Amino acid sequence: xxxxxxxxxxxxxxxxxxLDTAFRIRDASLASARQVLLREPGTLATDLFLEVxxxxxxxxxxxxxxxxxxxxxxxxxxxSYEARRAFAELALSGLFxxxxxxxxxxxxxxxxxxxxxxxxxNMLERGAHPGTPxxxxxxxxxxxxxxxxxxxxxxxxxxxxxxxxxxxxLSPERWFDDGSDFRLRRANEHPDRPRAxxxxxxxxxxxxxxxxxxxxxxxxxxxxxxxxxxxxFHGNRIxxxxxxxxxxxxxxxxxxxxxxxxxxKRSLERRKEKLAARMAxxxxxxxxxxxxxxxxxxxxxxxxxxxxxxxxxxxxxYMFPALDGGELVSRWDMQSTPPDVLVxxxxxxxxxxxxxxxxxxxxxxxxWLERDDDAYFYLILDELHLIRGSAGSEVVGLLRSxxxxxxxxxxxxxxxxxxxxxxxxLPIGEEAGAEDxxxxxxxxxxxxxxxxxxxxxxxxxxxxxxxxxxxxxxAVASARLPLAASPFVAVVHKFADGPxxxxxxxxxxxxxxxxxxxxxxxxxxxxxxxxxTADIAVDVVGEVAALLAxxxxxxxxxxxxxxxxxxxxxxxxxxxxxxxxxxxxxxxxRGLSDRIGLKAMYEKVAASTLPSVRIHAFFxxxxxxxxxxxxxxxxxxxxxxxxxxxxxxxxGKDGLLRRFVELVYCEACGELFVGGRRSPDGAASSExxxxxxxLEELPERTSDTLYEDxxxxxxxxxxxxxxxxRAVGKLEQWRPRVLDTRNSVLLASGDGPWSVPGQVFAxxxxxxxxxxxxxxxxxxxxxxxxxxxxxxxGVASPLRSFRIGFAKASQLLxxxxxxxxxxxxxxxxxxxxxxxxxxxxxxxxxxERRHHQDMRRQLLVSEIRNVSLARGEQLARLDEMxxxxxxxxxxxxxxxxMDLQDRVDQLKAAGDGSRVxxxxxxxxxxxxxxxxxxxxxxxxxxxxxxIDPAGIDVVCGKPWHSWIDGRxxxxxxxxxxxxxxxxxxxxxxxxxxxxxxxxxxxxxxYFALEETGVGYPSLTASQxxxxxxxxxxxxxxxxxxxxxxxxxxxxxxxxxxxxFPGRVKRFAEATGEDVDRxxxxxxxxxxxxxxxxxxxxxxxxHVHLVDxxxxxxxxxxxxxxxxxxxxxxCTRCHEQLPQSPNGKTAALRRGNFLARRLTRIxxxxxxxxxxxx
Length: 1173
What we know:
Among the domains are: 1-54 and 474-619, no CATH class; 63-258 and 318-468, Rossmann fold, CATH 3.40.50.300; 626-803, no CATH class; 810-841, no CATH class. Helices cover 38% and strands 12% of the residues. The strands form ten sheets. Strands 16, 17, 20, 21, 22, 23, 24, 25, 26 and 27 form a ten-stranded antiparallel sheet that branches. The two termini are 23 Å apart.
């Protein structure tokens, strides 16, 4: 990433905008204090940490040089020329980057002269000979896996060149597709080809096993590797397999005792059917992956032909098993013909060593080791540092059982065991704990792996020299510190876009870039006189990389360490007030190293030894909002806000000590409440506690999802207000109480500086112990009523805590990270971890569901904009279109003339271009043609399921896209007949568009379209004298669920004015005119506009888009935003709206989460993204 600090700022501001939108606080002073609080490092996010990742010194040799090096300097001394050659060719066929040659003597060579690191070269030498175990401890991303794979490949190649040719080609027989009986994958091998485990790769967890399998497939199953094996190994394959709990299928292929038992025979047939189904799926999955890779590579080649600089496609085929290669995918294959390389985890190995069904694996391996003097067994452990403590002791015992099971503990066999491992966290060299590492290795392995020959028993002391740390390239800076900040600040100001001040990319040379590099070079004391800017740019990139390496190190040891950005900025720029922005500019210049070689830039290559920078950004899902409350001069003041649960007391501005309480808010108006667990002291003096509820249910059930389910007897809600409630749920009450802020006790009465008068919520009689009774159905401040929501339609209360759940936090971060990587042109990938499998599974589902929901919301609003732009262009061409109609009539083309005239008439009737008819976006219920409307068409273009977040739900028994005909380049529905299956499927998908559209247009929260400042729903196609008043009425009708398509209830037909919902009638009363006349007029007007019986049809509405200079008004009482004054009163609480606007919509959009996302999509190259989870 070019601009990591700007990217961090962008993610943080995005999250803050979400909090301001979803958790809006009406109290301006507390809202401002929360903003300050959340920006403090350690509250919502820590400061950004920069870690310089050192480059490691490369060997002076290429891999193919092992063919010709002298015995003294050759890591494969003692190997034949043929073995060395085969090893190099195989290693360059997937493990290391290589390319084909035209020389039959050497089939592969290193690509671009890539050489192995010195620690990889050293591990090759240690692992290729007995008695010299190796544990590589270089840093993350330094090629540790390649380090232990190299000696394994060398040993396999040395043996494989002598294997006899298979009796028949090893191409698979697809028994799983044709109904045949099970057949072993290796049935065609020559019987003299030894079948045994040559190496076992052990991992502490399955996730690491999966990652290793992708590497093994690339190493052993690439087309290039197959060509090498065909040529050097006589057509043999190196077989490998993953043996974990997920490997199909359990049980014996041939039971040693129950082979005649009928029950066993039936069970065997079921297992064969299950295996056949799994393998058939694997075959199809691999075919799809290869097809995807081929098409992706074709796109890469086309881009290169256009002159674009693009990297190679990262092939997906290696993420899935290939049944036509060397991977064994069934337990029966591995039990009967043990793989050369076995990958498993500790738990599975413990099981395999004691079960009868796996005994053939160990028996065959032991027999091979005893029979062949040149047979060696590799024990390879990855992430060695994770094996510690009591569990580590169990692993030690397990490995010694394995050694004994294979007979490698005996004299004369001990030298056949070769031990390799890796760890990025074991202390080495002069680090604290380095001596403990040597002790750890001695105690872990004892003398195993250290025997150099038959007569050598080995020694545990030899493990002291087994650690291979790698040689770091240390960058040295020459500039004098502190640096002047201004040249680096100028880099940011010149290239940053938007309010986030983020630099997405710099891909072209410009005068501004040349000037910035020249200015920075002078600050760094780099010679500029008489030199080309391209050469100066290379020096600048190298120097800023060295400066970052200097600033990101431990002052005591000098070793690299992650360092807070503010500390780095102060190290480089002293106490300059612009040091943070200057550091951002310096990081941008460091990021140019990947770009200065572009043809459009400087065509210069930066040094490959420059250290890279790893970014650590820590965000948290806040546990709520806490603070103290007091009353002063009739006003309620909220002070000392914090997100830390468990804080007890804070001193207010009046000097008095008060207890922290948890704050709760109304999602509709932002009114604040106090909430918490009730103490068991009695209703008259209940204490409100901030402790987490139901602690006994942790960790199986997390506490951040339980508030809506709590009972009134467990949870209290206090409203710090003496106002009369605007609305009260059925049989609910708000009873006067006084909150003693010294101890958070609710009293029947009280007075004094610690007392806060207000009202406590009381559930209906008999409901006090009912789940969900703790929260009121209506907000007493704004009157928002959720009491008529059906079960499963969301929480039946507008009151919410300020908690952000893990799933929502993960989805927000993943979405913004994807957006950030997309706009920079990088491949978007992310991994979300959790402490438990249940939470991880729930997080994956929630991320997928929530992203799908957000994406559909963005799609709807962005398509409204797109249709508006297209309509504006067409309206500008009306005269031209009418002239074309006349020309078509004159030329006798009646059909074309009539079709175009219909379109002209529709445009004239539809009004101005700023009002978009929803009928242009939503699928009609009674279609007249097969055309896809804009919203569905966009789903088809993106390949996104229009209904199901997981993307797998079928519609009328088939995949959703099967009802759409994509031939001819323009997708269309397959049918317009609403009675056939295709028509029913079409109607089902059309119906699902409506709840989402309703939610976007009429949500009672700050995610409603009008709250974003983008636009609002309208009853009229163009501005008419009563449009604003009608649109105010429409919003009230939406609040009353009297719009078709809402997911809460079906609107009832209205035959007389008095049948309007109560909310509409109260609004009519607030307008100040005769209620019956007003309601009667509204009913008639709705009918004239096509909304019969008072039910508003979504496809009969328009969306009026406003520009960024349009005014807006906020209700002082409840905080609702209005983009027009309507009747001059608030559409929610009916209080008078301000006469003067609160501002322009541009400011409103900047503070709204959804509006910010839409602005990015329209301006900054962001896109509506699909995310696969």
